[in-house]
């Protein structure tokens, strides 16, 4: 080995030794990068990125009485919608109305299971013992007269009434969600997500039904 090659070999070994020493240093390690924590804003308000100190002090918000009341009342609200969709098969052969009603039936049955599970997990009853008397006072609920009129209708009259009444019913659900936000509810993650789902899903269905009504009147 020439003197030049021997010198380069020694130099390289020294650099590797220094590099390893630096890697195994007991000095302070660089802090690990963490993803930012974003706090969802209330409806109409922007989201906010929390500082590390704020994020570390966060606690999972607990449900409120407004949340419980919302879930209990929404179960009753859904029950009436299922009564309405249950009449569709025998009273109209319209494909679009029947498909719409079937979609509503499936989604609202699933939501009722979700709401019942949410209430049971929190040790609260599925129904407020005083709620039954004022159930028809909830936003969007059909009166007994409206229910009777829908039940006895058929064909095109049933289709028109079903769409009109279900739009009314859905708009009532959106009002109930708005009342939940106004009462300071919906902060707990699971109910907040559910309320937003109801808001979005029923808003889309209202637009669809309004279009179906417009097609029938044109």
Automatic annotation (TrEMBL):
<dbReference type="InterPro" id="IPR012347">
    <property type="entry name" value="Ferritin-like"/>
</dbReference>
<feature type="domain" description="DUF305">
    <location>
        <begin position="67"/>
        <end position="213"/>
    </location>
</feature>
<feature type="region of interest" description="Disordered">
    <location>
        <begin position="24"/>
        <end position="61"/>
    </location>
</feature>
<keyword id="KW-0732">Signal</keyword>
<feature type="signal peptide">
    <location>
        <begin position="1"/>
        <end position="29"/>
    </location>
</feature>
<dbReference type="InterPro" id="IPR005183">
    <property type="entry name" value="DUF305_CopM-like"/>
</dbReference>
<protein>
    <submittedName>
        <fullName>DUF305 domain-containing protein</fullName>
    </submittedName>
</protein>
<feature type="compositionally biased region" description="Polar residues">
    <location>
        <begin position="24"/>
        <end position="37"/>
    </location>
</feature>
<dbReference type="Pfam" id="PF03713">
    <property type="entry name" value="DUF305"/>
</dbReference>
